[in-house]
Write a structure and sequence with these properties.
Helix content is 55%, strand content 9%. By secondary structure, it is mostly helical. Strand 3 (162-163) and strand 4 form a beta hairpin.
Length: 174
């Protein structure tokens, strides 16, 4: 309802097709709600949810209606900003996620009309935090690009970090 009229009607036409006049925004939203509640539509939507979609759905649920920046930090090292933005936009266009404004920030939430298909995915934390049986632990690379950049920035800012052949105590503490 808060979308500008042009965006609202483009969204309605993309799902409902041609809109008959005279129209009422409230009635159109009810039609959209009925459409998204149909079991055949939900089965089709569920069939197209892939691993990337599932991870984002679980993260949105875990972070509790995050802004896009929070998701970007959560998925840093996995998705670039452009990749994440494209995935989020796709999920919005498929009506799996929606945006709303809270305290001058755009936030993302799961579509409550799709609870039956999104609920099990949202509760599945193993999509986000992988665990392995004892003895089969996978080792992460010791030095990632993000870690290297952080260390470089730390030492660049820190000035003299070495005393002799070892790090200064202050630097080790930091």
């Amino acid at each position: 309802m808060t979308l500008p009229d042009n965006a609202f009607f483009v969204l309605m036409r993309s799902v409902l097709g041609a809109i008959k006049t005279p129209f009422n925004k409230q009635n159109l939203l009810e039609d959209l709600s009925v459409f998204l509640s149909r079991s055949d539509i939900q089965k089709t939507m569920a069939a197209y949810i892939d691993d990337h979609d599932s991870r984002i759905i679980a993260a949105v649920a875990l972070l509790g209606e995050p802004c896009e920046d929070e998701l970007e930090r959560f998925f840093s090292g996995e998705y670039s900003y452009v990749q994440l933005h494209a995935l989020l936009l796709n999920l919005e266009e498929r009506h799996i996620l929606y945006r709303f404004w809270d305290e001058k920030k755009s936030r993302l939430a799961l579509n409550p009309k799709l609870e039956s298909i999104l609920g099990p995915i949202a509760k599945n934390r193993s999509l986000l935090f992988h665990s392995f049986p004892a003895g089969e632990e996978k080792t992460a690379p010791l030095m990632t690009a993000s870690l290297f950049a952080a260390l470089f920035a730390f030492f660049l800012r820190g000035g003299v970090c070495y005393r002799g052949n070892s790090l200064r105590k202050k630097v080790v503490d930091e």
